[in-house]
């Protein structure tokens, strides 16, 4: 057996709690003698890309992954403005910046507020209808 490290064993060695949490999150049970790196490999094999993205997002070297992804997928001959847009698209897709999540939270708050106003307006209309019915009697 070689002593090569891979993303699974490296992540498991640096953050074993993450591995246990992810296994619990996806309903996977494992033997305590099983190496945590192999637990991550099996999770990715069973669940696919969402688990792999979660591993990368929680990896201590996620900046290296981002840099590699940028170098591999951004065209060098593209104009500077397009390159910045592509970088922003990549950041949003990979959600390394966390801004998309903040925007989603703001959107959820807005929707919640609008729904609350609609419910309140409906309650006021019903109350007025009940009052007018009572006054007519």
Question: Can you describe this structure?
Answer:
The protein contains seven helices and no strands. About 75% of the residues lie in helices and about 0% in strands. It has three domains: about 60 residues, no CATH class; about 35 residues; about 40 residues. The termini are far apart. By secondary structure, it is an all-alpha fold. The longest helix is centred in the last third of the chain and has 38 residues.
In short:
This protein is an all-alpha fold.
Describe the secondary structure blueprint for this structure.
Elements: H1 7-14, H2 16-25, H3 36-47, H4 49-57, H5 62-73, H6 80-94, H7 99-136
Proportion of residues in helical segments: over 70%
Number of domains: 3
Count every beta strand, where a strand is a DSSP E run of 2 or more residues: 0
Helix/strand class: mainly alpha
Main attributes of the structure:
single chain; 137 residues; mainly alpha; 3 domains; 76% helix; 0% strand; elongated
């Amino acid at each position: 057996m070689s002593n090569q490290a891979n993303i699974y064993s490296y992540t498991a060695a640096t953050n074993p709690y993450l591995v246990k949490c992810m296994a619990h999150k996806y309903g996977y049970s494992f033997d305590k003698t099983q190496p945590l790196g192999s637990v991550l490999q099996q999770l990715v094999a069973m669940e696919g890309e969402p688990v792999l993205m979660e591993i990368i997002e929680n990896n201590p070297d996620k900046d290296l992954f981002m840099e590699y992804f940028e170098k591999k997928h951004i065209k060098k001959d593209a104009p500077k403005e397009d390159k910045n847009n592509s970088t922003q698209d990549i950041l949003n897709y990979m959600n390394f910046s966390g801004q998309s999540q903040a925007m989603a939270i703001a959107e959820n708050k807005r929707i919640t507020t609008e729904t609350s106003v609609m419910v309140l307006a409906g309650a006021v209309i019903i109350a007025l209808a009940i009052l007018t019915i009572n006054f007519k009697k």
